[in-house]
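REVIEWER CHECKLIST
Item 1: Sequence provided? yes
Item 2: Single chain? yes
Item 3: Sequence as submitted:
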Amino acid sequence: MPNVDNQTIELAFIAVAALALILQTIFVIVLVSTISKAARSTLDELENLRSSVMPIIYNTREVVARVAPRIEEAADELAALTRSLRAQTGDVQLAATEIIGRAQRVAGRVDEMASTVLDSVERAAEFVTGTVAKPVRQASGILASIKAIVESLRTAEYSSHSQAPMGRGPIDHRAGDKDMFV
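Item 4: Structure as written out by the authors:
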């Protein structure tokens, strides 16, 4: 083995260090080129995405710009409609309360009138019953008495002749008694 001195060892370390620096440089260059290629492809994809998304964003902005005043107008109209409905609801409630009050007053009057008419009809019925029915009963009783008298006279006349007229049988006095009772 040859004699290795310090200079040779130093030279070997420097050569190994230089080789390591060259390898690191190559590695860094490869890494940078790979990253730059990836960055370029990512930028290309972002550019493609941007080119497809930007028209949508611009169209959306235009639509929002066109629709925003209409939405504000619709919101204002809706607020005005709500205020109007509240006022009309109050008016309707007031009118309904008034109509209900009037209907209750009319119902009270109709009830009072119906009660008055029914009371008058009842009094008239009592009057008719008292003034007409009593004389009718009395007349009926008088007629029943007259009939009974006539029948008894007739029976007495037939008994005195000993023969009853042809086609007639004896008279049943009990049948006439039913009509006499009032």
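Item 5: Key structural point noted by reviewer: Helices lie at 6-161, 173-180.
Item 6: Recommendation: ____
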